[in-house]
Each structure stands twice: as structure tokens, then as C-alpha cells.
Design a protein that fits this description.
With 200 residues, this protein is of the alpha+beta class. The protein folds into 2 domains: 11-53; 80-186, Ribbon (Umud Fragment, subunit A). The chain has 1 helix and 12 strands; from the N terminus they run H-E-E-E-E-E-E-E-E-E-E-E-E. Strand 5 and strand 6 (121-124) form a beta hairpin. The longest helix has 41 residues, at 12-52. It is elongated, with a radius of gyration of 31 Å.
Length: 200
């Protein structure tokens, strides 16, 4: 009697299905691996651009010629201590204007500011400031409702805009001395428009 050995083979449809399921499993695993790599990177980027570097759009002409209206700038935030001459961004809650402003630090805590409005000269601790590097006309004539001289309180700074004839700044009680806790950071770089790209 002749014996036949029978080898059972899976139908082609079943083999194709298994192969497809195997491929799907590999694809899903690969997708999860990508997500595991990308999500922490995205979180780090969000933290970096929230707490370390922020993008701010300049609003208004008060910092011309240093910064024009609608310029986009990078602002460094963490560990910043204000220094005379720095261009800073102030949170809206820091003034009665209730809007984000960009100004230049003229004096820090303990320093005394006086302004000779007749001749347009700003004095800090009795010394006239040379502001020719950032003010086109180099004069400060507009006096608002703040009387001078003024001594900057602890934890505060005195700020002025570079475009003095139109700037609302520490000469006006609506802005006054700026509490350092409301300073978002120092303007470091103009990145838009690209033609003006560079450090401030």
C-alpha cells in the first residue's frame, strides 16, 4: 500500500494577512519610537522659548531708530539683571498702561536721574549721558508729570524710549519707575525683517 504524506500549507490569503499584520506591527512600533523621540524634544523647545528665549514684536515708534514698529526680536529671560543701556521688554502688568513696552534702561536702583529739559540732557548721578549712539537728535525735551531729580528705588529701574519726543516712559507717572519683577528680559537680537538682522 502506498502511503501519502500530506503537508498542510496555509492558504496564500492567510500568509498575506500574517505578513500584513507583521508589517503593521513594525510600523506601529516605529511610529511609537518616533513619538518617544519627538515629544521630549518638543517639550524642551517649548520650555526654551517660554522661559529662556522669547519672541516679541515691537509695537509703536518709541524706540526708533534702534527698533522700528513691528520689528520682531529675541529676548533673553532667565537670570537677567538690568544694566544701564540695556533695551528691555516690560510686562503690561508693570505699568498703568497695561501693555507690553520696550524701553532702554537709563538708571538702576540707587542711582539718581536728573533731566535738563531746556538743553535736553539726561544726567545720572550728576554725569551727563552720551546718548549719541542711539538717539538721532540726542536731546530729551519733553517733560511730563514726574518731577526731577529722581532716585531709583531698590528693585526698580528708570527707563526711556530712544525716540524721546513720542515715547511714554519713566518721565510719566503712567509708567514711572519699573519694578524689575515685571521685566521680561533683555532684547538681544532683531530677526525680522531679515534685512535688519543683528544684535541690539
Amino acid at each position: 500500500m502506498q502511503m501519502w504524506s500530506v503537508t498542510e500549507e496555509e492558504p496564500e490569503e492567510v500568509q498575506a494577512l500574517d505578513s500584513s499584520a507583521s508589517g503593521l506591527g513594525k510600523g506601529t512600533k516605529s511610529c511609537y519610537e518616533w513619538m518617544e523621540a519627538i515629544i521630549p524634544a518638543l517639550i524642551l523647545i517649548m520650555v526654551f522659548f517660554t522661559f529662556v528665549i522669547r519672541s516679541i514684536t515691537v509695537s509703536g515708534p518709541s524706540m526708533i531708530p534702534t527698533l522700528e514698529d513691528q520689528y520682531k526680536v529675541w529676548v533673553s529671560c532667565i537670570g537677567y539683571t538690568p544694566h544701564q543701556g540695556d533695551v528691555v521688554v516690560v510686562d503690561g502688568a508693570g505699568t498703568a498702561l497695561n501693555e507690553v513696552i520696550v524701553k532702554r534702561v537709563i538708571a538702576t536702583e540707587g542711582q539718581t536721574v536728573d533731566i535738563d529739559f531746556m538743553n535736553g540732557i539726561v544726567y545720572v548721578d550728576g554725569e551727563p549721558l552720551d546718548e549719541s549712539a542711539y538717539i538721532e537728535n540726542g536731546i530729551t525735551r519733553n517733560q511730563y508729570d514726574v518731577e526731577f531729580p529722581q532716585t531709583v528705588p531698590a528693585g526698580h529701574v528708570f527707563v526711556l524710549g530712544d525716540n524721546r519726543p513720542v515715547s511714554m516712559d519713566s518721565r510719566d507717572s503712567m509708567v514711572g519707575m519699573i519694578d524689575q519683577r515685571y521685566i521680561i528680559g533683555k532684547v538681544q537680537l532683531v530677526y525680522q525683517p531679515f534685512s535688519e538682522f543683528g544684535r541690539v
